[in-house]
Design a protein that fits this description.
The protein has helices spanning 3-27, 60-68, 79-84, 129-141, 155-161, 169-178, 192-200, 219-234, 236-247, 251-259, 267-280, and strands at residues 30-35, 53-58, 74-78, 89-91, 97-99, 106-110, 121-125, 147-151, 164-168, 188-191, 204-212. By secondary structure, the chain is of the alpha/beta class. Strands 1, 2, 3, 4, 5 and 11 form a 6-stranded mixed sheet that branches. A 5-stranded mixed sheet has the order 8-7-9-6-10, with helices on both faces. Helix 4 packs across helix 7.
Length: 294
């Protein structure tokens, strides 16, 4: 057998193995991680488990761990974890949680002005490594040397013991809207999404849908996720009303909040993701990021 024929047979065998692997994956029970934050609600609006798929709900750090340990198969993973584990993970090509400017739910609450935080202690949420890394970048760019201390998210406790507090998600949004006094004083607010935009003029991509490279998502799962997103964005007012009731906030506030997000991982969102990676991972190469062709 000549070299060309041998290579052709090997390529055909590899293709057959890949097809078989995808078929086996489609028949297995797929475990989908669902982040329990309002900004993700449009992505799974109306989506319910079906035969062949189950849902696991949690905060980003929980679902990141479950994905990496093989306890779930696909989830919205924080950008930092995706970038750090880029040799193990592969993302869907058209899903993201990103903003161009303010995000309203990744907020630093602080007693002193931003430029006076040098030498201070900042309590940072344990629910998101990406937001902590973003804060580290912003502090470094401003030449502010502060101590970051991981703390369970509770704004009152954080600000009674530290000079500033980083919150994310629904608690950050609720506190930012309320702007309440704590012990008779109202903290200052810095939106990290807006601060990133001022620094780079790029979107910040907070999360992407990803799976392990050895566990490709089925076409059916991705198709249903895309359909759920279209339904959620098409019924954004209804999504906002449901989430507003859960958070005890105005539906108008929630709809404005949700309409601010970029859910499709468009080229500027990828540029923002690469810019973030280059700042936190010295050895990063853009070609190392991989996306499913599905």
């Amino acid at each position: 057998m000549n070299e060309f024929a041998a290579k052709w047979q090997q390529d055909a065998a590899d293709d057959a193995k890949d097809t078989k692997k995808r078929a086996q994956t489609a028949m297995q029970q797929e475990r989908l991680g669902i982040v329990r934050y309002t900004n993700v609600a449009p992505l799974h609006w109306g989506l319910v488990p079906w035969q062949g798929a189950s849902f696991v709900r949690g905060v980003p750090t929980e679902l990141n761990r479950k994905l990496l340990e093989g306890e779930i198969d696909l989830t919205l993973i924080s950008s930092y974890e995706f970038l750090k584990r880029r040799l193990e993970l592969k993302a869907l090509p058209d899903f993201s949680i990103a903003t161009l400017g303010p995000v309203y739910s990744v907020m630093l609450f602080h007693w002193q002005p931003w430029q006076d935080l040098a030498g201070k202690r900042i309590a940072v949420t344990t629910h998101s490594a990406t937001s902590v890394k973003l804060l580290e970048i912003l502090l470094a760019e401003a030449a502010i040397d502060a101590e970051l201390v991981p703390v369970e998210p509770d704004l009152e406790r954080m600000l009674r013991n530290y000079d500033a507090a980083l919150l994310i998600g629904d608690s950050a949004l609720t506190e930012a809207v309320a702007q309440r006094d704590i012990d008779g004083h109202r903290p200052l607010l810095t939106d990290l999404g807006e601060a990133w935009y001022r620094l780079t003029r790029l979107p910040f991509t907070f999360a992407v849908w990803a799976s392990r490279k050895d566990r490709p998502p089925s076409g059916l799962l991705v198709k249903r996720l895309r359909a759920a997103r279209e339904q959620g964005l098409g019924q954004l007012a209804e999504v906002a009303r449901a989430e507003a009731g859960r958070l005890n906030l105005s539906p108008v506030v929630i709809q404005r909040y949700l309409s601010n997000f970029r859910y499709y991982l468009e080229p500027p969102d990828r540029d923002g993701l690469i810019s973030f990676a280059e700042r936190i991972l010295p050895s990063f190469e853009p070609g190392e990021l991989e996306f499913w062709d599905i």
